[in-house]
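Quick question, first post here. What does this chain look like in 3D?
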Amino acid sequence: MADDLEKQETSALDTPVVDDNTGSIPVETGTEAGTKIGDLSALGDAMRNEELVDPSGPVAPQLDKQGRAYATGKRKNAVARVWIKPGSGTVKVNGREIERYFARPVLRMVIDQPFQAAARHKQYDVTCTVTGGGLSGQAGAVRHGISKALVNFEPTLRPALKQGGFLTRDSRVVERKKYGKRKARRSFQFSKR
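> Answer (accepted):
Ran it through. Tokens below.
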């Protein structure tokens, strides 16, 4: 208990003390350490003198040794690992052609949406492995992975893909079953007697 009080007293002594005569606090800036600043306008001048680093500078593509961009896409319970590289537009899913893996045209259209939004149709070869979920969830996972891989390959495409909502992971998953219920919310059949 006494040790705690000593720690509080020492931490209170370390805090800067306001000078009662002028009301200013010693401030350390990049150029002049310990300069007293009396009002907010002087603080603004001191902040303008510091160098500003622009975090939104040009972003370099993230490529592996084979010149491919990698990303992971998710949807429902499906997880897709996606690699893209410049090519003629072939898409392989788990080692099979997209027409054989995703037989429904709607699922192939879902996978092609990021390329349409970025105006890069038939310019990239896609190789992906998908596990978990059903075909609809897997198609959504591949779409999410392709979108993220396109951003890794060409960072300038991010605004177009972000506006279309392709970079956002759809967090809707199956609701868990509760005890005392037949499913997540469905009750057992009511029996009067």
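The chain has a mean pLDDT of 83.
The first helix runs from residue 2 to 14.
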